[in-house]
Amino acid sequence: MNPTDTAMDQRLEALEPEAPGAPRRMVLNMGPQHPSTHGVLRVILELDGEIVTRAQPDIGFLHTGIEKQAEALGWQQVVTITDRMDYLANLSNNLAYVLPVEKLLQIEVPPKAQWMRVLLAELSRINSHAVWLGTHALDLGAMTVFFYCFREREELLRLFEMFSGQRMMTSYIRIGGLALEPPRGWDRAVRKFIRSFPEKVNEYEALLRENPIFLKRTQGVGYAPLEQLLDLCVTGPMIRAAGLQWDIRKAEPYSSYDQFDFEIPVRQESDVYARFLVRLEEMRQSARIVEQALDGMPEGPWKADAPRVVLPDREKMKTQMEALIYHFKIVTEGVRVPAGEAYVPVESPRGEIGFYVVSDGGTKPWRVFMRTPSFGNLQSLPALFEGRLIADTIAALGSMDFVLGDVDR
Amino acid sequence: MLPAEIQNLPTPAAIAAWDAGALTGGSCELGELVLWTTREKLVELCRFLKHEQKFTRLVAVTCIDRYPVEPRFEVVYLLHSIERNERLRLKVAVHSSDAVVPTVTGVWAGANWYEREVFDMFGVRFEGHPDLRRILMPDYWQGHPLRKDFPVHGHKYSYKDE
């Protein structure tokens, strides 16, 4: 415990002195280490019996200064730290970072790279939702789902490893295209997984959808009206479970999402159960997108023709003077990005992620602001907690689907 | 005052019709609209944008440190209108000697954490904010890490109290 824990002190001070005859209040510290907080989140709860009267999240335990670090790294190097923010959907983060940088550089990314990015982003959406579903169900006491979901997640991590050599910190999407040529046999491996996946989603659904315990613990729990959620900067599945059909992949398509056919699941109830149904359907839609990407994958190069930004092929570097010079410049000096600023929103599994990138024309970013969905979503925590039962906090917390690395950066 | 290429865009035109002095500049590069306003007009303009122009979503509030240039800080409001499918960045320039901006938490409740983050990281104060405390750094932290004159590896840290 640090010596100046003002958040807790303030709450305790606010309670005293207790008037005689007044209802007894209690301040309860939840976290920072708590099995259901999925990371290091601390919530200070004020209780009146079993009812939460005030909930105050305390964040920052996973703050690692990623935005500051980004200003000290080269443009390409920043990709590697974006993996470490939202460690369940790192490919979405990679994509969200490279898009504004490519916009500033005005690079045309070849279709194959764009489709491959879509495919990988959707696989990471499935990965993220699978982890969410498993842990959320585990919080509510359903252990089997956890094992089922992590079985699929394991296969996905093997796929990511096949592409990038890394299971979690992939850094596979780079400025100008991809990090490596897609490995031999990638399409067969992905197809094998995605063929069997809809069947697996049916299994999850069968375990939970009509499970009386799950229904009792989720229906009508964690309700908040759409206007309030929008006002609190909430995005993603939480908004769609509250009745707004808004998905950045459709509204502001990036990376050729406009060429894919998929639906945006919407529910009206805005409770934990509705969020579960929305994410379940999103997994199916992601599988559809991956299938389409596999079937229609364009031929051609997987990186842009931008010699000042993209490293040349090894063969060219050994035979062409120009390529050797560019290689030397990129490796020793780094990529130069024209002065300016750009913001491109991306639909991550959790909501709107966007990197607001500012360049002064140098080889390092001047400022990289990371608008992360978890930060905005977590802000709605008091709205979902206050006035409800303390037993429901765990269900409401899980339904927000935040990643603390993404909140604190 | 506004450059010719953005004068006829719907949002700047509507703002100019509402209050000619609300905007002090603007640009539209790479298809992204950026408008500059002043501290005095900020809250009223935000209210106008939210209620009259349907910019219902505040995406984020952030800041850019232009050290050593003065005015040093640019406080940036990223706005989004779902209905019009339009995005807008609103900027306010702030001097380091008087780094105070009025809060917009009264317009969008969600500005709360973002303004706390800007305060924590840059030391820009938000006047009227209901709960302006550090959010990511510990309460006893000295300095504001995302300022350009704050070293990347931090000041020497003493563990003697723990």
Could you characterize what this model shows?
- The complex is a heterodimer of chains A (409) and B (162).
- By secondary structure, chain A is mainly alpha-helical.
- Chain A has two domains: 3-58, no CATH class; 67-306 and 336-406, Cytochrome-c3 Hydrogenase, chain B (Orthogonal Bundle), CATH 1.10.645.10.
- In chain A, 48% of the residues lie in helices and 11% in strands.
- Chain A has helices at residues 6-15, 66-70, 78-82, 90-105, 111-139, 143-164, 186-208, 212-218, 226-231, 237-240, 248-251, 272-296, 314-319, 321-332, 373-378, 381-385, 393-400, 404-408; strands at 26-30, 42-48, 51-58, 173-174, 177-178, 340-348, 351-359, 367-371.
- In chain A, strands 1-2-3 form a three-stranded antiparallel β-sheet. A three-stranded antiparallel β-sheet of chain A has the order 6-7-8. Chain A has a two-stranded antiparallel sheet with strand order 4-5.
- The longest helix of chain A is centred in the N-terminal third of the chain and has 29 residues, at 111-139.
- Chain A is globular and about 85 Å long.
- Chain A starts with 5 loop residues before the first helix and ends with a helix.
- Helix content of chain B is 23%, strand content 28%.
- The radius of gyration of chain B is 17 Å and the shape is globular.
- The relative contact order of chain B is 0.13.
- In chain B, β3 (57-65) and β4 form a beta hairpin.
- With 162 residues, chain B is of the alpha/beta class.
- The interface between A and B is large, with 45 and 40 residues.
